[in-house]
Amino acid sequence: MFLSISTQHHPASDLGFLFHKHPDRVHKLDLPFGKATVYFSELSAERSTAILQVEVDSIGLVRGWGGGGNSHEDLYVNDRPYVSSSLFSLALSKAYRSAMNGVSKERPELALSSLPFDVYIPTLSSPLGKEAIVEVFEPLGYELVIEETPLDAKFVEWGEGRFYQVTLRNTLPLSMLLKHLYILLPVLDGSKHYWVHQDEITKLIEKGKGWLSEHPSRHKIIKRYLKNQKDLAREAALKLADSSSESSPTIMPVDKPPSLNDLRMRSVVETLKASNCSRVIDMGCGPGVLIKELLKDRQFTDILGVDVSPHALKRAKVRLGYDDLSENQKKRLSLMQGSLVYNDKRFHGYDAIALVEVIEHIEPERLSTVERVLFEFSRPLTIIITTPNKDFNLSIKALGADRMRHRDHRFEWSAQEFQQWALGIAKQYGYSVRFQDIGRETIDSIAPTQMGVFTR
Description:
By secondary structure, this protein is of the alpha/beta class. Helices cover about 35% and strands about 25% of the residues. The chain is built from 17 helices and 14 strands.
């Protein structure tokens, strides 16, 4: 397991002073369960990146620590060496002790300053899904790029796994960033490699000072950090409330920036409303994020969520709180298993179809079939397609030029490629199309998401 932290603060080479690590050396640290290594993968005035790599000795972990209540069989063969967990949080606190405490002998003023950071976590463990990742990081002002990992790339219909590739971006003191990671990584993972005792409350209060008391999901964070031990959680909540009145002012932003997913959904909903449609299909609805927004507006009287994965549809029902919806809301909503590669007559007769980050999951050789299903057979008045802009990938350091944003993406289009495809399809099937960029643009005015709106 590794984690990278990058900055473009000028001069970015100061990152070595902040971490109290010489950038030309490889720093090794022995841990009770393995080894940690810190090194700098890049160092310049423009951009610097520090890597923390942790190697876990699974057998030594069992024999030396005795685990946190799991069976020996579970501990000998497990995912712990490869994912973010309490093991990694401990390594983080040991390897970056001075930085986490806000101490820098050479740059003391810089250690307290808010700086722009990018954090890349290749295998973040979150059994509660990517919504939980957004829930804990977004209120702290982070912009997130989350890549989902299917349980099995060959059987996408099985649904998502519990591991995600995550990039976090924020401007804040390095010490606060490290404290966020220290608390939230094991909270998302939901497990600990040791028994939780009273002293865990002290750690939580110490690392949560200045931000946790104001977090809208603080009670969930406390419970999961303390492994749902009610007595400890109750005591921690009281102590946190007491300490918050004496703590330094919170650095949490008053107005958090909307996430890319929020901007994407907002753009799609606004476009659907402007089209005056009432009957809408969310094709590839996943956990129902768009459907939840559509249900808030009475303009949409017939909403159909379609997904190839039964697991995704079950998650959508949970997310939507289907059992608690009013009868009128239930009448407006339908969920069904289906596929874009079949001419399903149940898709016919709708005003609009939205494909939000869906088309890039389709095999290129099946794209012509999907085009016919959408534009020839279903033929709604409005079709909305959003897809990643491949040109933006160069600004995501963890991806580089050749990698795609999601393991299940079959392709990704540049802006030119997407527009060329869309214009050709529009001409072939009698539609007009306009384009819109979505998300925070790079200095070269490249947005992370591109949207095509087809109308006839």
